[in-house]
Amino acid sequence: MRTQTEAPVAEPRHVGSGDAGVALDGVAKAFGDVQALAGVSLRAEPRETVAVVGPSGCGKSTLLELVCGLLEADAGSVRSAPAALMPQRDGLLPWLSALDNAGLALRVAGASRAQARAQASEPFAAFGLAGFERARPAELSGGMRQRVAFLRTLLAGRPVLCLDEPFGALDALTRTQLQRWLAGALAREPRTVLLVTHDVEEAVLLADRIVLLSPRPGRVVGELEIALPRPRERTDRRVVELREHALQALGVA
Amino acid sequence: MAAALIVLAGLAGWEALVRAGAVDALLLPAPSEVASALWNDRELLAPDLAVTTQEVLVGLLAAVAVGAALGVGMHASRALRSALRPLVIGSQAVPVPVIAPLLILVLGFGLAPKVLLVALVCFFPVTINLYDGLRRVDADSRKLLRSFDASRWQAFRLLEAPAALPAAFTGLKVAAAVSVIGAVFAEWAGSDAGLGHALLTANGQLETARAFAATLLLFLLAVALYAVFALLERRVVRWR
Predict the structure, then answer these.
(1) What are the distances in angstroms from CA B97 to CA B116, B202, B210?
(2) Could you tell me the pTM of the whole model?
(3) Nearest to B117 by CA among B190, B47, B50
């Protein structure tokens, strides 16, 4: 399954020797005349959470699609262990129940409907979703939908998770709750995570490292190590300082 | 309730106009006359209704089978799409009253030309709506399935087919509504039974009320078929 390959190739690119990390070197991608990414290099070590922060339209989503093998880079190399994508809007299928949505990747991997349900139901309950197995996405709150979508991503069983603004569409209160919840879920089941967000505070709260991107065409303008113990509080002085620091590096503050 | 009142008011106005002598009763019979023709000629019209219903049902079935196959085929293969699209669209430019007599000449007076014409009228909305439904799948969901390394068939079964169901049902409902047109034209071109045939005979005999009664039955047939698909849609597409 794991082969060492250089982009561009059709198959999802895997890093060799049991690595579960992500390595991008000088990656460029254009859509027609629009240069989305211009020479982006970044690395995520195994079990590291790397937040990618930048203004809207700086190519953050493109970056994740490259890592997931959904797009080919025009230049540079993309190497990654198999990655699962959690798209910006939750992408839940409206005709499937919450439980069937959570187990979608298992079905794609060849499990029967019953097998997928059996395998998904235990973590489903652990995610605080018990009682909503048969509910359709339209009947779920925004926070629950995101939890189902995250569980679906997790159950894909890939070492790398690509989360595209997972909480962008939520109200502030739910967002805060889910940020705490995600920190807990990742502490219990560590993965290599690329977290795309435009919320600097979210990045400081969740990530081990923050990569700052410039406005389009996106390029790396800075990196911040977040060596703070978990759980982190938004009111913590060090969190506030790092947030301001990041905003300054982005030229906002 | 309001709808029933509007229909009743329309019928009452129509009745009053005819009775007052504003229109020639031979050209436009009063609703009461149509109703009594429907009742008095029931033994004449019932076999015609059965014949036309059979033509429409078999024709619709053929249209759904062929239309669905074309819609999926055009979605799945670029070559099929390029080859079939002009033919599918062009098929709807064929004037049904013109080719109906030709089909009768080739296929005879039986069921075959009727089924073929019903299918010709009905497959188009099925194909086009299904094809559009399959294409308009949410881009994020597509990416999701691809990120799970779903095969072409899995993407179709788990994502595209269910996503296209609402559009497919729209196609079926349109097909149901227009299906009787094909049957009537085919019967006009050559037949010895059916509501279209009854319509033609009644016109020739200046039995206007019976002609209207036959038209009413065609109307009810189309509405009933539409209702069947609408009901089916409500049972199948439950997430809307």
Answers:
(1) 13, 20, 23
(2) 0.83
(3) B190
Q: Residues 185..214 of A with a Cβ closer than 8 Å to B: which?
A: none
* pLDDT, tens digit, 9 for 90 and up, residues A58-92: 888 899 999 999 999 999 999 999 999 998 888 89
Q: How far, in Å, CA of A40 to CA of A221, rounded? A: 10
Strand ranges of the sheet holding A192-197, from the earlier edge strand across to the other edge: A83-86, A160-164, A192-197, A49-53, A209-213, A220-225
β-strands A160-164, A192-197 pairing = parallel
Taking the Cβ of residue A12 and every Cβ of chain B, the question of whether any pair is shorter than 8 Å is answered with: yes
Q: Is A189 left (phi over 0), alpha (psi -120 to 50) or beta?
A: beta
The closest CB to that of A105, out of B148, B162, B165, belongs to: B148
Distances (CA, A) of A184 to A160, A179, A231: 17, 9, 8
> Can you give the length of chain A in residues?
253
Q: Which of these, A87, A60, A66, A76, lies nearest to A217 by C-alpha position? A: A60
Residues A95-114 pLDDT 10s? 999 999 999 999 999 999 99
Residue type, A87: P
Chain B closest-CA separation from residue A111 CA (Å):
12
Task: Write the CA distances from B27 to A140, B8, B34, B202, B209, integer angstroms.
Answer: 60, 21, 12, 12, 9
Question: Which residues on chain A are in Cβ contact (under 8 Å) with B240?
Answer: 94
CA pair distance B127, B65, nearest whole angstrom:
10
Q: How far apart are CA A40 and CA A218, in angstroms?
A: 7
